[in-house]
Design brief:
With 327 residues, this protein is mainly beta. It is 2% helix and 61% strand. Pfam families: Tocopherol_cycl.
């Protein structure tokens, strides 16, 4: 029953009875009403083959300063529900309804609560329990991806290193990853801070190993005016263009009916630890203060959506040449 339940609830803990190498992490992004504060928190677990390095963790990144922290805990301080999204690490709790943080370790101290409301869920369909579509049922993939909340409202405040961070009237977003390792190279972009209050975007393009080969796959969506537009490898979408020069990125994605054009400017990000088969030993950069200019068009040329996303998340990692479509 647990195996069936977790397939249709990708947001819940997938790692019960798993052995290393295995990781699982949830990504909670929170932005204040006026954009004056933007923080992401990543609770997670890392299991290795030797068991000695097994641990759970909370990563935190300040979108304004780029400062980041990787806070580790003994593995026995990780508690997770297998029925709903509820993660407890140390004295902090993360759920679909909000986060309660009580952290005091090394140079990082954070206390307070954020409550989430008006959550927009990623739709589930027959043979598509989440953003991965039917790929959700494919075993032995290196990394799986899930969207928990496309967009939601945030209420509350956090005191972080003696500074009050007010998130009242702000926005939030939740996603997650789990598996054995992150890809060798990928591009990830996310924003839900557009003039259109409920608009939300996520794009993930990666080199995906499969059996003895590999391919470039992608997952993406844009949510506009109560409608979700999906672009993905599994539904016939394709990435038609990628360029990345001097921290400027341009991406064009299309399916049979629509085109999605994104121009982004990467701003200096903070350090995060990313999973490999040997543990959380890869250091990457993530910005959550980048700017994305986004256009969604019909194939006939009509513009459905055109706006600029602020406080946007962006990662450009590994050899990006591997991802650029061949002409």
């Amino acid at each position: 029953m647990y195996r069936l339940n977790k397939l249709w609830k990708p947001e819940v803990y997938q790692g019960l009875h798993k052995r290393g190498p295995y990781f699982e992490g949830w990504y909670f992004k929170n932005t204040g009403k006026d954009g004056s504060c933007c923080w992401s928190f990543i609770p997670g677990i890392s299991l290795t083959k030797n068991y000695v390095d097994n641990h759970c963790f909370i990563q935190a990144i300040d979108g304004i300063t780029g400062d980041s922290w990787y806070i580790t805990y003994p593995i026995n301080e990780f508690k997770a529900s297998t029925d709903k999204l509820e993660i407890r690490i140390g004295d902090s709790v993360f759920s679909r309804e909000g986060i309660d943080l009580n952290i005091k370790k090394d140079s990082f101290e954070c206390r307070g609560s954020l409550k989430y409301s008006n959550i927009i869920n990623y739709p589930k369909r027959l043979l598509a329990p989440g953003i991965m579509g039917w790929y959700s049922f494919v075993p032995f993939m290196e990394c799986y991806h899930g969207i928990v909340s496309i967009n939601h409202q945030v209420k509350g405040s956090l005191t972080i290193n003696n500074h009050l961070q007010d998130f009242n009237g702000g926005k939030g977003y939740i996603e997650k990853d789990w598996g054995k390792s992150f890809p060798s190279s990928w591009i990830w972009m996310q924003s839900n801070n557009f003039h259109n209050e409920e608009a939300s975007l996520m794009v993930s393009i990666a080199k995906i190993p499969w059996m003895a080969h590999s391919f470039v796959g992608f997952l993406s969506f844009i949510y506009v005016d109560n409608q979700l537009y999906s672009f993905a490898t599994y539904n016939g979408g394709r990435v038609s263009e990628i360029s990345y020069i001097d921290d400027k990125i341009h991406i064009e994605i299309e399916n049979k009916s629509y085109m999605l054009h994104i121009n982004g400017g990467y701003t200096e990000g903070g350090n995060l630890q990313a999973p490999t088969p040997k543990g959380m030993n890869r250091r990457i950069k993530e910005s959550i203060s980048s700017i994305l200019d986004v256009r969604l068009l019909e194939k006939g040329g009509r513009v459905i959506f055109s706006s600029t996303g602020l406080n946007s998340g962006m990662e450009v990692c590994g050899d990006i040449e591997e991802l650029i479509p061949k002409k």
